[in-house]
Structure formats: C-alpha cells, structure tokens
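Justification of resources, computational component.

The compute hours requested in this renewal are based largely on the per-chain cost of generating structure records like the one below. Each record pairs the submitted sequence with a full structure-token output. That output is archived, and it is also reused by downstream analysis tasks.
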Amino acid sequence: MSPPDVRASGAGRGTLWGILALLRSTLPEVLRAIAPLVGAVCVLQATVVHAPLGQFLQFLVGAALVAAGLVLLFAGIGHGVLPMGRFIGAELPRKGSPWLILGVAGAMGFVTTLAEPDVLILAAQVEAASDAGPGRLALIGLIAAGVALFTAAALARVVLGVGLRPMLAVALAAMIGLSLVAPARWVPIAFDAGSVTTGVLTAPVLLALSLGTSAVLAGRAGSLDGFGLLGLASAGPVVVVLLVGWLR
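The structure output for this chain reads:
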C-alpha cells in the first residue's frame, strides 16, 4: 500500500478548518437575523396570542432548525457557490464568444430558479389558492424562463457596455403596459413572481457570475459594472407571466 499523500491530507485539513471557521463566523449573523422574529413571537405569546404550549414549543424547535439550516446554507454559498460562480464568470470572456456568455448566463438563471425555494413556495401557494391561474409547474417554468431571458440580456449589457438606464426603462415600460392589458388575476401573481427570484440560491449565483465576468472584461468600470443584473432578472418573470396571461 502506498503512503498517503501528505500534501493532499494537509490541503484537506486546511479546507476542513476553513469550513469550520466559516460556520463559526456565520452563526452569530444568523442568530442576529432570526432573533427579532423569535423575540416578537415570544412577546405575542406572552401578551396576546397565548398559543398552546405544544405549538409554541414546536415553533421554538422550528426556529432552531431554521437557524441550523441557514448556517449550513450560508456557509455552503460562501465556501463553494460564490467562488465557483466568480470563476465561471471570469473564464467565459476568455473563450472569445459572446454567445457562449449569454447562453451560459441564461442557463444558469434558468436552473437556479428551478431550485429556488421561494419560487417553489409561491407556485405551491398559487396552485392551492385557485385553479384559475397558471399551474404549479407552469408557473415555475415561466418564472425560470423570465429569469433566464433577462439574465442573458443583463449580461449582454455588461459585454456590450450598454447603460443600465435604457434597459430598465424598456423593462419597466413593458411591465406597466402588460399590467394594463393582462387579466387582473395574473397581475399580482406576476409581481410576486418577480420578487421571489432574488432568493438565497439565485441571487448569489447570478451576482457572482456577473461580477466575475465584469471584472475580466477590459475597459469597464471594474466589478461595479456587474451590478444591476439582479434587478433586470427580477423584471423578467413579471414580463413573461403578464405576457402569457395576456395571450392566454
């Protein structure tokens, strides 16, 4: 049996310690984030609501599980998702194909939206509330398609050096115009569809991809050129859902 690779084991230990350090640094932030919610519920429980003890204890256990899940989620995003997104964004311009950049950006926007928890929750709630709107799978697909199209358009802005204001003006005009002609029941769904896209998964992936791309392209205003993508990506589902509702 060959001896173990000392360098590999050392790298593994370094990675493990890095993950543990990231977990320790993330825990206080998570506790500060959920403390106001837990505190507010505790005050309401003691003064107004007076829920059964079992239900209140169930809430506390659920809050603890949420805290643990957020710690792992944020640690995973910071340790793996963001660095990989920046690497992909930085490598794409070196391939010399703008179409490759836009295709990858659209694909990343689509697949991350399919897995976004906020999107899944919204689609399930819309389906449970009424059968008059789009179905669960149809709504998820429309939201993902809107994010994909507008993510590609937003990254094209970075590649071509186009200003953000004209694209925002077009997107807002489309949203307002379609809101006036689409069925009334589709309008609130569409705007909620835009708001749930900037969740814990989609936002860091797309932001890292955009910042990595803008940091490499010469003649741009540094990584600041990469901002604005999330705003345009959020407008995509609104436009697509309203458009489908109008044409349906």
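The first helix runs from residue 6 to 49. DSSP finds nine helices and no strands in the chain.
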